[in-house]
Design brief:
Layout: H1 8-17, H2 33-36, H3 38-53
Length: 54
């Protein structure tokens, strides 16, 4: 959400328009959240994938 290169509004709009897209906001995350916020991102991704498969 704090990325200075990409605004979060595009992701928020996309997530609101598509039922199979979930947005997990990380207020302090910047351009590479997967590197710095992996503890927060990993469970969200795993839970999402479980719901898609199950």
């Amino acid at each position: 959400m704090a990325d200075s290169w990409l605004e979060s509004s595009a992701a928020e709009t996309l997530a609101s328009q598509k039922p199979n897209i979930e947005l997990t906001p990380l207020p302090e995350a910047k351009h590479y959240p997967q590197e710095h916020w992996s503890a927060e991102i990993t469970p969200a991704i795993a839970n999402f994938l479980r719901r898609q498969v199950g």
